[in-house]
Amino acid sequence: MRLSLVPGLLAGVLLIIGVVAVQGSSKDEQIDGLTERLNRLTSEIVDLEEKLEARLNWKKKSKTGSLEYRIEDLEESECGDHEHQCGGDDPQCISDLFVCDGRKDCRNGEDEDDCELPFKEGDRFIGDKVFDHCGHLDPDHITLVFNYINDCPILPGYRWFNATVKITVDDEDGHTKLSIPTMGHYVFANHLLILEGRSDGASGLGVNGQFDGHNHDRFVGETIHEDSGKVCAKFVYHRDDDDDDDHHHHDKDDHHKDDH
Ligand SMILES: [Ca+2]
């Protein structure tokens, strides 16, 4: 009995040692497992932090004003001539024609974010001359009045309008007053207003008006010889909010009627 007890005890001790050993190795495995999970979580947190930071930066960028927007505009070099970059941390180029056409084409939806036309029917902009070599009139100011705005079902990203260009010059011959009917369109993709020359082709001068995409009260207009494409004048246009003109009152009344 005694002899048989020793191997029994020994077996028991061995069993306990074995169990402890097994427990020990499973603890190591557990620790390894935990370490691995921790590492994985840490890397996930780092990823998340990076994503959050990118988003915050993007939000910050989208909140900034005209100047930074223009710098970003200059930096947009990855896209082609008639392409728009979707912006944010997701570089993507889409055709200019798809900006503000009522359908989301950018993965981040940026192409439909800012689609407010910077002018409405009846609005009046006055251009102050920077230089003008276009003709003998050489006016100090040009007034542009938006008469009608039309949607184009085929190109919803363009907005077509009828406008009147008004020029008043006091010279030795007296008082020259011109009122030129014209047509044009606005391209949302690059905030560009394109004023065609006179519909009868008499003047042959067009205007490219560059809005900055944020300020709807101002654009820089370059007068262009339509046949050569050469810039012959530059005027800085600003929205005219003065109510001291009878005609303007009339324009406003017209617009008021349109609202109903
Ligand atoms: Ca679109």
Automatic annotation (TrEMBL):
Annelid erythrocruorin linker subunit C-terminal domain mapped to chain residues: 118-240
Disulfide feature: 100-115
UniProt-recorded name of the protein: Hemoglobin linker chain
Cleaved signal peptide residues: 1-21
Gene3D superfamilies in the cross-refs: 2.40.128.620, 6.10.250.1540
Listed InterPro entries: Eryth_link_C, Eryth_link_C_sf, Extrac_hemoglob_link_heterodim, LDL_receptor-like_sf, LDLR_class-A_CS, LDrepeatLR_classA_rpt
Lineage, highest ranks first: Eukaryota, Metazoa, Spiralia, Lophotrochozoa, Annelida
Alphabetized SMART domains for the sequence: LDLa
